[in-house]
Design a protein that fits this description.
It contains five helices and eight strands; from the N terminus they run E-E-E-E-E-H-E-H-H-E-H-E-H. By secondary structure, the chain is an alpha/beta fold. The model is unreliable at 118-138 (pLDDT under 50).
């Protein structure tokens, strides 16, 4: 079947009655377990802990719509985790939120430059997040 996506309603509409699966897509979660602060330009407030709540809301929405697979397209973690030495604990909190889905992850600039990931693994564009967790945080 072909999937038509209504970008305003964020609801996939099938053009046939054959469903091959549903995919949820999310980007720029940028979670860190730190207090709110301004961005690097000092222009706006960043609500780092609220990012986890927003991901939880997305996961509830996906469950309600029987989503099978989630693709996270970059910046799952905020780079400030590295300064606080919280990369792995923050990642585990995020993973618990989406553990009911088959999850794929695309590296964003926060993962590449702000977290403890060996340079060789940044050449992988998309892969299972379980691989990401096991391979990148040693």
């Amino acid at each position: 079947g072909t999937v038509k996506i209504d970008l305003l309603m964020n609801t996939p509409q099938l053009e046939t009655d054959t469903c091959l699966g549903k995919i949820g897509i999310i980007a720029d979660v940028q979670y860190a377990d730190i207090d709110d602060a301004t961005d690097y330009q000092g222009a706006r407030i960043r609500r780092y802990r609220n990012a986890l709540i927003e991901l939880q809301n997305a996961a509830k929405h996906w469950k309600n719509h029987q989503v099978d697979t989630v693709v996270q397209i970059g910046d799952f973690l905020d780079g400030k985790n590295r300064k606080q030495d919280q990369t792995l604990s923050s990642l585990n909190q995020l993973l618990q939120t989406v553990e009911d889905f088959q999850l794929y992850h695309v590296l964003g600039n926060h993962e590449v430059f702000g977290c403890h990931i060996p340079l060789i693994q940044t050449s992988c564009i998309i892969f299972r997040l379980e691989m990401f967790q096991n391979a990148c945080f040693r």
